[in-house]
Amino acid sequence: MIMEKIPPLFDFDTMPEPETFSNGLTGQDIISVSQFNLEKLRYIFERAREMRELVERRGSADLLKGKIEAALFYEPSTRTSASFIAAMERLGGSVIPITQGVQFSSVSKGETLADTIRTLEQYADVIVLRHPKIGAAQVAADYADVPVINAGDGAGEHPTQALLDLFTIREELGHVDGLRVAMVGDLRYGRTVHSLTRLLRHFDISLRFVSPEILRLPLTVMNEVIDAKIDVRETHDVADVIENVDVLYVTRVQKERFTDLAQYEEVKNQYEITPELMARAKKKMVVMHPLPRVGEIHYSVDDDPRAAYFRQVRNGMYIRMALLAAVLGKA
Ligand code: NCD
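That is the input. Now the predicted structure with N-carbamoyl-L-aspartate docked in place:
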């Protein structure tokens, strides 16, 4: 049988020096969404679309062949860690995963973050770090000569999640300007909320924040929204916003951030998106969630075409492929 020869999608091997293509991201740490302006966002989204095409047509490429990523996760993760591994491997690179096994690494012997980072950079070309402390990614970046990518620093930021969230909004609805976005749940400790809110300041949108009183958006983030002159309102009730939103961004109450578990118990089951609630929403809108969900979205909503959270998961891989390529100078 004659095998059909699939034409190459991009001639990666003969591409010119990539520095000029990477839009200033080569060699850079990715710590906060504040590093991204519209031009950089557009660049990453264009690359992410190419990565999707690449995966759909060929599955993988050799773009990052020989490159090594150290994935150091001090907090639980399924999607972020798996997609950072998948992204690297689909581009031909490889990964040192220190993920499920932080407890088996020298971290458990009391090694400092600084020493762990200075060790890993001896082996790896890029370090992906998730850590329970706000600011940990910046500390790591200060010690490392190789790029550090923040995969979530406590209740601080989660920039790569925000990029994939914004990308998902654009892919699902075709545009961002003019949209009304509601964020629901734990706006206080939810780092994905903080990062996405900050990113959305670049657009002409309105924001609705829905949370229990004790889980309202931190004042620092709220002030940034107000300074950006964005139309913003807060409420405790999803019913107040459901009929008029284009994006419903639902989040988990971040149990691990509470010092008083009784307080967590009080607010944990405040919201549940149900088919009844969805019946009142616009025909063209999307429900998103960074996942994991622990009861905020009823499983019967999954069949609703507006439920975008698993497409959102997949977009995470494309965005991380685009980012790794850019940071490693192979855009
Ligand atoms: C989020 C996180 O870790 O901040 N998950 C993720 O990265 N997809 C949200 C969460 O844990 O609730």
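The chain has two domains: 33-158+314-327, 159-313.
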